[in-house]
Amino acid sequence: EPEVTQTPSHQVTQMGQEVILRCVPISNHLYFYWYRQILGQKVEFLVSFYNNEISEKSEIFDDQFSVERPDGSNFTLKIRSTKLEDSAMYFCASSEPSGRVEETQYFGPGTRLLVL
Amino acid sequence: KQEVTQIPAALSVPEGENLVLNCSFTDSAIYNLQWFRQDPGKGLTSLLLIQSSQREQTSGRLNASLDKSSGRSTLYIAASQPGDSATYLCAVYMDSNYQLIWGAGTKLIIKP
Questions:
Q1: B11/A98: higher pLDDT
Q2: Helices then strands, each counted (H, E), chain A
Q3: Which 3 state secondary structure label does DSSP give A49?
Q4: Residues of chain A found within 8 Å of residue B89, distances taken between Cβ atoms
Q5: CB contact at 8 A, B2 and B25
Q6: Residue among A45, A93, A109 whose CB faces B42 most closely
Q7: Subunit contact A35:B98, Cβ cutoff 8 A
Q8: pLDDT digits (tens, 9 = 90+) for B27-38
Q9: What residues in B contact A91, CB-CB < 8 Å?
Q10: Which of B2, B4, B100, B101 to mutate to test the interface with A (most CBs of A within 10 A)?
Q11: Are B23 and B104 in contact (CB under 8 A)?
Q12: Are B32 and B90 in contact (CB under 8 A)?
């Protein structure tokens, strides 16, 4: 069964460093998403991406964040200068090939980011 | 601003019992509501998706209902098993900003 994959599973970085989190969505999906979950808190929407551009973004997704689909398979989240409060589990998701926004989102296993 | 609340925050029941998890939301302008399962340290698995025009969805031992006008959804788990132990999250997809808004989850423990 097709699945969303994410790398790395864990990443530790120093405050101020840039990190790139990678995701491979399900191959025929058209919508891509990033979410984060700070330990013990709710899952929060960061950004959605469709047709090679950002569709929606939350207040969390400030200038320190960017997303890119560098090729036909990868979808990346870059944090330019990490802060302590960026420590969280980051989830990538993709949704069905119909492209309708209300379709089920399929989630990857997450990348746990720890900023020291 | 949409707020999603899940009650109870934690639930522990003996194996075999039927149980109900609750989810409420403040803004009824939703496209759909989804129930997810999260295992410790792992990703999110979609269990059921109910469109805003639907009243319920069933998958195996799971049944989810939606009362959009009252801002409520329930997830019914029949004949619970230890393998059902996980955190169950509900999330609503807003038609105003195309975002999934999440509840904090119900941590479920099924005792053998």
A1: B11
A2: 0, 11
A3: strand
A4: 43
A5: yes
A6: A109
A7: no
A8: 988 888 999 999
A9: 43-44
A10: B100
A11: no
A12: no
Beta carbons of A105 and A33 less than 8 angstroms apart: yes
Chain A hits for B45, Cβ within 8 Å: 107
- Overall average pLDDT of the A91-108 stretch: 76
Residues B51, A35: C-beta atoms closer than 8 Å: no
Tens digit of each residue's pLDDT (9 = 90 or more) over B27-83: 988 888 999 999 987 789 989 999 888 999 999 999 999 999 999 999 999 999 999
Least confident piece of the model among A37-51, A97-111, B38-52: A97-111
Task: Verify whether the Cβ–Cβ distance A42 to B103 is below 8 Å.
Answer: yes
Check residue A22 and give its pLDDT: 97
The answer on pLDDT for A8 being more than 70 is yes
Q: How many other C-beta atoms are found inside a 10 Å radius of the C-beta of residue A71?
A: 7
HEC string of B33-96 equals EEEEEECCCCCEEEEEEEECCCCEEEECCEEEEEECCCCEEEEEECCCCHHHCEEEEEEEEECC
For residue A81, count other CB atoms closer than 10 A to its CB: 12
